[in-house]
UniProtKB/TrEMBL annotation:
It catalyses: (2R)-3-phosphoglycerate + NAD(+) = 3-phosphooxypyruvate + NADH + H(+); (R)-2-hydroxyglutarate + NAD(+) = 2-oxoglutarate + NADH + H(+). Pathway: Amino-acid biosynthesis; L-serine biosynthesis; L-serine from 3-phospho-D-glycerate: step 1/3. Catalyzes the reversible oxidation of 3-phospho-D-glycerate to 3-phosphonooxypyruvate, the first step of the phosphorylated L-serine biosynthesis pathway. Also catalyzes the reversible oxidation of 2-hydroxyglutarate to 2-oxoglutarate. Residues 456-528 form the ACT domain. Coiled coil: none annotated. This is D-3-phosphoglycerate dehydrogenase. It is an enzyme of class 1 (oxidoreductase).
Length: 528
């Protein structure tokens, strides 16, 4: 059997050497195809290897009749429609750490070029202009670097900045004051970081939560003369807000490797003399390109020869017999994880999952991983799946314990998940009801009965006459339709909760209005 591999972005020839050497693979390298041409050809291939340029859209995946694996020679998989790949049973693998060093070095190169205006001075000199007055820079020494996203690349950048004798302040949802102290960086919220920094660099994935994380309001909070670097993903910084902040004089410099649209179409930012830029070159080194191509080549070989991969981004690897028994609970476990991620304040430091009733007699490891996937993907993005969730939990210092009990607790089966964050403990329990599907039956210590899907509002309030009516009226005025409402209380006149399912996600403004009602302590929007 010969497997046909298509490489549609330039990959290092040394990196794909393992594939060229292995028996049973036929490689086609076509790096200049239009999306239409790719769509016409993709049906012939068993594997596709890409970098960030090829857009592996749902339309492409739907035409990929024989495709079994997509290898992304790099970290970010935002150019691949993961949902479509998963739906079509196509495994997606990436190379999560092969380009960390190169991306960190590029970030430092951009930071220094920006601070010392090296590209601008070079450009003037090329034009035979010996100008020493226009390019006076600033030193990094004793300045504060704000790092937003202290993962693999962010941590490497922080270490290098300390080598430049900079002070570093960082925010990452997984960073605790203890971890920050060990790394020799200051710990702060996004607001603390943007207020304190002379230079800012972002290293998060592009997620719903990080899109335009650096927006007009963030620029407003920054110090005058701040300089900012983006070598992560276009869209983390709002380009329009950046343009305005540079023009107003608030931002003195920007160094950009990535853009909201790539290849770039809007060159407005580049017309500003304060901006230095590269065309997404963070990972473009001989070394990184070789490592990431070797990593994905090995995973492709391993997949076709042994059925296993090292760096799966999307698919579960649960044996079929086990899967048949646990499949009904799979979705419930993931939704409990998402529910708690949205409900809790802060990120989980400890997670306890307990299986009761008939679940005590089956292999529940994959359920725990799927719950962790739900919990962690809110912070780490779609890259987390049930295969790598436990790895990510360990990497982020989240302690996970699993226990089983045959006691039925009034339900034939019950999954209870408890998470501990720096702000406290939250708990939710779910069950599968015969004929009715999944239900959340307990939140903290309150009994409830709610289907874990769609948009849910969790409201903690004081049990007073009229509060339910005021919530209904306010949501009605905001045009938010309530589908179901559950109320629970500790004792008459004491603490109480409401769980409302609503027909569409509530705007932040509506949530703020609710929180202004005197009886209401907390409102959380949960999206399942
Ligand atoms: N310019 C280039 O060529 C390259 C860009 N990248 C991009 O760099 C980014 C980071 O890569 P890695 O460090 O390898 O990933 P990573 O997963 O190790 O780190 C990302 C960090 O962001 C944190 N995070 C998530 N949401 C956050 C939020 N709202 N605020 C602050 N932090 C948040 C996560 O907790 C995590 O620690 C990715 O987007 C990746 O695609 C990676 C390699 C090369
Ligand atoms: O393949 C590339 O050069 C882009 C690298 C990148 O952005 C990533 O690995 O996320």
């Amino acid at each position: 059997m010969t497997y046909k591999i298509l490489i549609s972005d330039p990959l290092s020839e040394d990196g794909i050497y393992p594939l060229r050497q292995a028996d049973g693979f036929e490689i086609t390298m076509e790096t200049k195809m239009t999306p239409d041409e790719l769509g016409e050809r993709i049906g012939e291939f068993d594997a596709l290897l890409v970098r960030s340029q090829t857009q592996v859209t749902r339309a492409i995946i739907e035409k990929a009749k024989h495709l079994k694996i997509i290898g992304r020679a790099g970290v970010g998989v935002d150019n691949i429609d993961l949902e479509a790949a998963t739906e079509h049973g196509i495994i997606v693998v990436n190379a999560p750490d092969g380009n960390t060093n190169s991306a960190a070095e590029h970030t430092m190169a951009m930071l220094m070029s920006m601070a010392r205006k090296i590209p601008q001075a070079y450009y003037a000199l090329r034009n035979r202009n010996w100008d020493r007055k226009s390019f006076v820079g600033v030193e990094l020494k004793n300045k504060t670097l704000g790092v937003i996203g202290l993962g693999r690349i962010g941590a490497e950048v922080a270490a290098r900045a300390k080598g430049q004798r900079m002070n570093v302040i960082a925010y990452d949802p997984f960073l605790t004051p203890e971890k920050a102290e060990k790394m020799g960086v200051d710990f702060g919220s996004v607001e603390d970081v943007v207020k304190a920094a002379d230079f800012i660099t972002v290293h998060t994935p592009l997620l719903k939560e990080t899109r335009h994380l650096i927006n007009a309001e963030a620029f407003r909070l920054m110090k005058p003369g701040v300089q900012i670097v983006n070598c992560a993903r276009g869209g983390i910084i709002d380009e329009n807000a950046l343009f305005d902040a540079i023009q107003s004089g608030k931002v003195a410099g920007a160094a950009l490797d990535v853009f909201e649209q790539e290849p770039m179409v809007d060159f407005r930012l580049l017309d500003l003399p304060q901006v230095v830029a590269t065309p997404h070159l963070g990972a473009s080194t001989v070394e990184a390109q070789e490592i990431v191509a070797v990593d994905v080549s090995n995973d492709v070989i391993s997949y076709f020869t042994t059925g296993t991969v090292r760096n799966s981004v999307n698919l579960p690897s649960v044996p079929k017999e086990v899967m048949a028994k646990i499949e009904p609970y799979f979705d419930l476990a993931e939704r409990l994880g998402i529910f708690l991620a949205d409900l809790a304040d802060g990120t989980a430091e400890e997670v306890n999952i307990q299986y009761a009733g008939e679940l005590a007699n089956i292999e529940v490891g994959p359920l725990t991983r799927n719950m962790l996937k739900g919990l962690l993907k809110r912070y780490l993005g779609e890259i987390v799946n049930d295969v790598n969730a436990a790895y990510f939990a360990e990497l982020k210092g989240v302690t996970v314990t699993e226990s089983k009990s045959t006691a039925t607790k009034g339900f034939t089966n019950l999954i209870t998940v408890e998470i501990k964050t720096a702000k406290g403990v939250r708990k939710a329990a779910g069950t599968l009801l015969n004929g009715q599907g999944a239900r959340i039956v307990k939140v903290d210590d309150y009994l409830v009965d709610v289907a874990p899907k769609g948009n849910i509002l969790f409201i903690r309030h004081n049990d007073r006459p009229g509060v339910i009516g005021r919530v209904g009226t306010l949501l009605g005025e905001e045009n938010v339709n309530i589908a179901t409402m559950q109320v629970g209380r500790s004792n008459a006149g004491g603490d109480a909760i409401m769980l409302l399912t609503i027909d569409k996600a509530a705007e932040q403004g509506s949530l703020d209005q609710l929180e202004k009602l005197t009886e209401i302590e907390k409102v959380k929007a949960i999206s399942l």
